[in-house]
Amino acid sequence: MMDVAVSYRGGFNINGSGLTGTLAANPGELKLQASITDANISNGLYFDFGGLLLSIEKPGSFIVDYDVPKKDVRFQFMNSFKFMEKQINFTYTHTRQENRTILDGSLVLDTANKLSANYALDTRNCKLKYSHVHRGLTTLEPTYDFAKNSWDLAVSRRVLDGDVIRASYETSSQILGLEWSWQSMMDKGGRYK
């Protein structure tokens, strides 16, 4: 006999968008999920759905999402394997209505160094990113965007028991960013940008 775990998380906003919630079931290796957003009850038991998303997932292998109001489907396939004792991760994502396909890949050189690439087939845009973690506290991430022919740089540092301070610079837009993310048991964390 198969064990199935079922859970529900949601709420109702009287002044706002109405009912929201997620119903999830885990039969075996699969995860089944139905998410509702902006649902309103009218004429007794008639539900007017602002958003209804049905999902089936096998963690680490695939995800299929069906957006009921938009009649759109999104496929995502993932795979990981070793090549010359290095971890390679690969993700293929396709959205039918947008006719958009994205390939993501990463090569884990060691615990501190990772090279990743993102390629969007519809725009032929490719981004390469190198990530280096220094002594487990500081992360340096230079990124090259082939479509914009530009470099971006981000540096983040772990401070004060899990808080993270991150600085970034986008050369194409000349935007300098500073962000502070904190973890707190009292207020569930937060972020300043």
Question: What attributes characterize this protein structure?
Answer:
193 residues; 16 strands; globular; 0% helix; mainly beta; 16-stranded antiparallel β-sheet
What does this protein structure show overall?
The protein is mainly beta and 193 residues long. It has a domain at 1-70. Helices cover 0% and strands 71% of the residues. The protein has strands spanning 4-13, 18-27, 31-42, 46-48, 51-58, 62-67, 72-83, 86-95, 100-110, 113-120, 125-134, 138-145, 150-159, 163-170, 175-182, 190-192. β14 and β15 (175-182) form a beta hairpin. The model has no long low-confidence stretch (mean pLDDT 84).
Report the C-alpha radius of gyration, rounded. 21 Å
Give the low-confidence spans. none
Through-space gap between termini: 50 Å
Number of DSSP strand runs: 16
What is the chain-wise order of helices and strands? EEEEEEEEEEEEEEEE
What class would the helix/strand composition place it in? mainly beta
Most strands sheet: 16 strands, antiparallel
Backbone shape: globular
Share of residues in strands: over 45%
List the total number of helices: 0
Mean pLDDT, all residues = 84
Q: What is the helix content? A: under 10%
